[in-house]
Write a structure and sequence with these properties.
alpha+beta, about 150 residues, Nuclear Transport Factor 2, Chain: A, 3 helices, elongated
Length: about 150
């Protein structure tokens, strides 16, 4: 009985620790910039993308969206989840030409503050997993091999 009580106590302490994961508090400038830029955002969650950059994931008009801000609140980029059918024809043509047989996942339209748009996605085929990005004209701007999950 004593071992059971000890075991349950350890489990309780471990679960308490997981529940108390600290939330990221963005800089007041980043938070203010987000509120001003996306007043209709719901279900937002802040995280640290890398030192000096905050990412906030949220829903806007029913679309999964993320935005990156620096510490001063300057917008770095906006990522919107899109479906494959919504890719520009130029990007679809490049995918057919260079990535035939790949299944696309996590397709995002990425917009920088200047309005330049790129399209980023994961491409999977058998044991190959790539992260690829295209410009609006369908040119490949990056292609990186990712570790395949088992």
């Amino acid at each position: 009985m004593r071992k059971l009580i000890l075991l349950l106590s350890y489990i309780f302490i471990i679960l308490l620790g997981y529940g108390n994961t600290p939330k990221v508090q963005p800089s007041s400038e980043a938070k203010s910039a987000f509120t001003a830029k996306f007043p209709g955002a719901t279900k937002f969650k802040w995280s640290i993308e890398k030192p000096g950059e905050y990412e906030v994931e949220f829903r806007l008009n029913g679309i999964k969206t993320a935005a990156l801000f620096d510490l001063r609140g300057a917008l770095i980029e906006i990522e919107e989840e899109i479906k494959e059918v919504n890719l520009p024809q130029s990007v679809k043509t490049s995918i057919i030409k260079d990535f035939s047989g790949y299944k696309l996942k996590e397709i995002e339209k990425v917009t920088n503050p200047n309005g330049d748009i790129t399209y980023e996605m994961e491409a999977l085929r058998r044991k190959i997993k790539l992260e690829i990005a295209f410009d609006f004209e369908g040119a490949i701007i990056s292609k990186e091999s990712l570790k395949q999950e088992k």
